[in-house]
């Protein structure tokens, strides 16, 4: 799969930023522990001290999204099956009461990867059911594409289709008239629109 150069550069930068943030936070954590660690945890048992250190040093990973975000990958394929899972969820961190619950839709795609013929199942959307978002976006036979690090999974346009979603930012774009050898760019993020897999 050949990705446009500007899109590749964008992803590389995004990964570098995440890793840098993670390393800086980790360095800050080391400084905090060296300066105040002993004082703060002076009165607790050794086991709890170790646990506190472990949790503390894991925090930078949580905040920077490393490595969870980094295990994402670019993938594409043909949709074999669309599953919408409707469940109850809530936004309350503690003890939600009945009125905090809402219906949530999670959209899963079963996709056949053309290169390996392998079936993969991917979660492409989760959100409040009443918004009905992405319920009708995907259908069997669509070719879908997901870019590493992006929150979106786009449907690649078939011939004569006039719109395409940006694989990076998710904005919907009207396909402009373009000359031979030119590639259209997104009106929102200015990166090259991915219309087909090369
Ligand atoms: Zn865009």
In short:
With 198 residues, the protein is α+β, with helices and mostly antiparallel strands. The chain has helices at 5-40, 46-64; strands at residues 75-90, 101-112, 119-128, 143-146, 153-155, 163-165, 172-174. It folds into 2 domains: 5-71; 75-174, no CATH class.
Helical segment count: 2
| Multimeric status of the protein | single chain
Major sheet: size, sense and barrel closure? Answer: 5 strands, antiparallel
Over all CA atoms, what is the radius of gyration?
A: 22 Å
**Mean pLDDT score, rounded?**
87
The run of helices and strands is HHEEEEEEE
Detail the poorly predicted runs: none
Approximate strand percentage: 25-35%
Question: How would you describe this structure in keywords?
Answer:
globular; two-stranded antiparallel ribbon; alpha+beta; binds zinc ion; 198 residues; 28% helix; 26% strand
